[in-house]
Amino acid sequence: xxxxxxxxxxxxxxxxxxxxxxxxxxxxxxxxxxxxxxxxxxxxxxxxxxxxxxxxxxxxxxxxxxxxxxxxxxxxxxxxxxxxxxxxxxxxxxxxxxxxxxxxxxxxxxxxxxxxxx
Length: 118
Prior knowledge:
single chain, four-stranded mixed sheet, three-stranded antiparallel sheet, 21% helix
């Protein structure tokens, strides 16, 4: 869930290109068999209570297969002016990644997948 579909669309369009769908309440992109969808909450909710309609997501991780691909995404973030961590090492899984936050402060990351991940 997002506060502003247009702001979310502008942000992710810089990164991924034009959305596959957008209307007043939602926007989405399609990557082969995967679709990422952002939309307005369906209802107002009280603060400090869990609800699936609340704005937010802990984070979303996008796996890449090579260091060169990770470097390309880091460079792309820099080119379009999205503040990011630079490529750093994950202290728990010993793999390289770069993180950034979207307009709703939802953490996103591109990470180098292990050889064994599909």
